[in-house]
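Hi F.,

I've been meaning to write this up properly since the lab meeting, where we talked about keeping a consistent format for the predictions we share between groups. The idea is simple: the sequence comes first, exactly as it goes in, then the structure tokens exactly as they come out, then a line or two of notes. No screenshots and no reformatting. I'm using this chain as the first example so we have something concrete to point to.
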Amino acid sequence: MSARCQVTGAEPRFGRRVSHSHRRTSRRFDPNIQTKRYWVPSLGRSVKLRVSTKGIKTIDARGIDAVVAQMLARGEKI
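Output, unedited:
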């Protein structure tokens, strides 16, 4: 599965790991993805979302109905 948030669209970022001797190797910064289940009253069912912790805070602030409506308008599969 991809490490992508369905709400915010956060994806892995890439960078370099630098050792004490200053050798550089590639590394990956993954978002903190959680699988959460929400009851959506407008759909009349629960949905399972893969969201980052920032996405969870966004849902808490704006409400699940508003977030799901925006996701459906974007063409996101729920």
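Notes:
The chain has a mean pLDDT of 96.
The first strand starts at residue 13 and ends at 18.

If this format works for you, I'll send the rest the same way.

G.
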